[in-house]
Every structure is written in structure tokens, then in C-alpha cells.
Amino acid sequence: MTQHVVQFSGGIGSFCAAVRVAEKHGTEQMVLLIADTGIEDPDLWRFADDTSKLLGVPLTKVSDGRTPWEVFHAKRFLGNSRLAACTGVLKQVPCRRWMKENTDPNNTVAYIGIENNKRDRARIPAIARNWKPWRTQYPLCGKWEPVRTKAQLLDEARALGVEPPRLYEMGYEHNNCGGLCVKAGQKQWKLTLDVQPEQFARAEAEEERLRALLGDVAILREQRKGVSYPLPLAELRRRHHAAPPIPLSP
Ligand code: SF4
Predict the structure, then answer these.
(1) Among 80, 166, 169, 224, whose Cα sits 20 to 30 Å from the Cα of 153?
(2) Is 37 in the pocket of ligand 1 (CB under 6 A)?
(3) Domain spans of the chain?
(4) Could you give the CA distance from residue 219 to residue 233 in angstroms, rounded to a whole number?
(5) What are the start-end ranges of the E strands in 113-178?
(6) Are 179 and 196 in contact (CB under 8 A)?
(7) Cβ neighbours of residue 175 under 8 Å, at least 6 residues apart?
(8) Which residues sit opposite 7 in a β-bridge?
(9) How far is 179 from 199, CA to CA, in rounded Å?
(10) Best mutation site among 176, 189, 202, 206 for ligand 1, i.e. most ligand atoms within 8 A of its Cβ?
(11) DSSP 3-state of 35
(12) CB of 68 sitting under 6 A from ligand 1
């Protein structure tokens, strides 16, 4: 019998992918595989538990045991939008290890919940290559699957009685690493400063510790006169707080 392993990130895309798999194949041979990075928003776990209850499938949780910050210390390299070792160490490696120990590639399909837009669809060939020898499917990108916006996917969860993760409501594009993803740009870090100042302070302190160890490195970079410079979170915070507030429309 084919085993159906949903790579469940705790995001809305993988939620909807899991629902599609359950509708098509039932849940008897279904696994909800989720990696714990140690810095997820607590509401991600509430959402994951609600999804598990909805589908009647227990969560299969894997974990490296370290946080992204601990990985950066170990690798002596601070992750950023161009290169982030954390995703491989904390997500891909533990999930692959679980797949290796618990599935047979000949009768297992891994499902990835990437959303049906041009940018995400372009990632499919690389994802498929990385997952070999397992076959991969992308339930939200199927030929007959209508293109849905993120808002529609969130409404789908609500219609099934599952409240979406709170990070979306707070303005985040993704529900990962509590809004502290090192791959995110300035816009998201400013959002974190506005809506989760205590989490921003935590990231800023972690970044400062890594700067003390590694020198002038930063998660973010900025261009000045055509030259790229590190932009530490502490500096971003100072500038953001010094900037005049955006006037409210009448
Ligand atoms: S979501 Fe971002 S910070 Fe978290 S593991 Fe992935 S790349 Fe690293």
C-alpha cells in the first residue's frame, strides 16, 4: 500500500495539501511529518494540533534539537537571504532521516504544499531533485486545481473549522520560525519590530552574539552607492524608530 507523507510545515499551503491528500487517498496511510526548529510561534503548534484532530492523523514530529541560532554558531556562519544552513539542518535532514528509517521509496509519495503561483511553481524541479529517490507531488499545483490566493486558502481552513495560524493575521507571508526567518527581507523584520518587539529583541541579541564571534556580519544587507554592506538588526531598529510615522489617510 502506498504511504502518503505530507511534509507539513505548519503553513497554510501544507495544510491545504494535507486536506487534498486526505480527500483523494483517505487518511489510513497518511503521515503528517513536521520538523521543529525550536523557535516556532506557539500558535503554529496549536494549528498543527487542530489539523491533526481534523484529519484524525497524529503529528509525526522530528527535531534536530537545535535552534537556527545554535546552527549558525556551530557553522560559524550567520544565515541570510542568500544562504541559510538552518533549513537544511533543522528541516530537510531530520525529515529525510525519518523518511529513510520509516518508508520505502518505491511505495511512498512525499507531498509538498507549495502554493500555485509562478514563483513557487518554479521551485518544483529543484524540490523534486532534492527529494529523490522519493516521488513528490504538489497537490495545490495540480492540473485541475484552481489557482487560489493565500486569502482563499486561509478561508478554506476556517470553513473546515480550523483557525489559521495567527502570524498570517499579523501580516506575515509565512508561518515559519515565529516570524524570525533569516531569509526574510527588511520589510518583514520591520513588521516583526512593530508587532512582535520582544521577538525582534531576541533576534537582535542573537545576531549581536554572532557578530561578536564572527565580525561585521548581519542577516540583512543594504546597498549604498552600488556597494553592499551588512545591515545589523540593531541599526534597522534605530532607523525604523527614528523614521516619521506614516500619516493616516483621512
Ligand atoms: S524558516 Fe528561515 S530561519 Fe527557519 S529554518 Fe527555514 S530558513 Fe532558517
Answers:
(1) 80
(2) yes
(3) 3-172, 185-241
(4) 8
(5) 135-137
(6) yes
(7) 9, 10, 11, 12, 41, 44, 47, 165, 167, 168
(8) 33, 112
(9) 8
(10) 176
(11) strand
(12) yes
Our answer on whether the CB atom of 183 is closer than 6 Å to any ligand 1 atom is yes
Give the atom of ligand 1 at the shortest distance from the alpha carbon of 79. Answer: 8
Given the DSSP bridges, would you call strands 135-137 and 108-112 parallel, antiparallel or unpaired? parallel
Average pLDDT per consecutive 10 residues, the chain (250 residues; last block may be shorter): 97 98 98 98 98 98 98 98 95 98 98 93 95 97 89 98 98 97 97 98 98 98 96 98 72
Query: Is the pTM of the predicted complex or chain greater than 0.90?
Result: yes
Return d(Cα 59, Cα 249) in angstroms, integer: 45
- Contact in structure between 14 and 41 (CB atoms under 8 Å): no
Q: Ligand 1 mean position to 249 CA, how many Å?
A: 36
Query: Which cell is 148 given?
Result: 487560489
* CATH class of domain segment(s) 3-172: alpha beta
Eight-class DSSP state of 132: T
